[in-house]
Amino acid sequence: MLHPIRALTMATLLLAPPALAPPALAQPAGLTETLLHLGETAEVTRAPDEVVATLRAEARAGTAAAAQQAVNRAIAAAVTRAQATPGIQVSTGGYWTGRVEEQRNWQASQAVTLRGGDGPALLELAGTLQGQGLAMVSLDWTLRRETERAAREEAARLALEALQRRAAAVAQQLNLQLVGLREVRIDAPERGPRPMAMAARSSVSSSAAPVAVAEDAVVRATVEAVAVLRP
């Protein structure tokens, strides 16, 4: 005959239910809401649709006036040539004049910037200006403002959707419901110009155009928010 206490213990073990998966995390009684801080980043790619080239005219002379006159003539010729090329926007800036101490001469320089969506035409123009004595400062692929703005908006939308999905998944794990977002912050910084590969075209002409190969631009956006969860 079994002892009464031992018999009760055996009965308890026999009636115990099989092991189950751990339940969702229990929330304290009286909990009104839980705040969840989240952040998500998304990116989209776009093919560059604009080329930007900056060239510089530079001259040295015994006087400041002579150096500046030489630069002024070079920049005026470059602007006239650029304005005659359809689809090319031209601007000037970065004027500098100073004394070259080692030779006691004066040096002057000024930059001219070309911008356009027709890559071959702009590169051909840049090669012509190089042949006229201007030095290439930078040559970049970039996105037009409207193209970049649309890409940033799409990246922000994708990041926000990802954040909402993640918040809903966490809420389910906590046995709560997602009721909304607070303090939503969208950070979609503007991109700078993206340098492109350049090489000189083999030619006997001194005005050979530079060669460039573009690379897709990546536009990112980050969304941060406080998700409100309730039972």
From TrEMBL:
Domain of life: Bacteria
Coiled coil stretches, renumbered: none
InterPro entries for the chain: 26kDa_periplasmic_antigen (IPR052022), SIMPL/DUF541 (IPR007497)
Protein name: SIMPL domain-containing protein
Signal peptide annotation: 1-21
Keywords: Signal
A family per Pfam: SIMPL
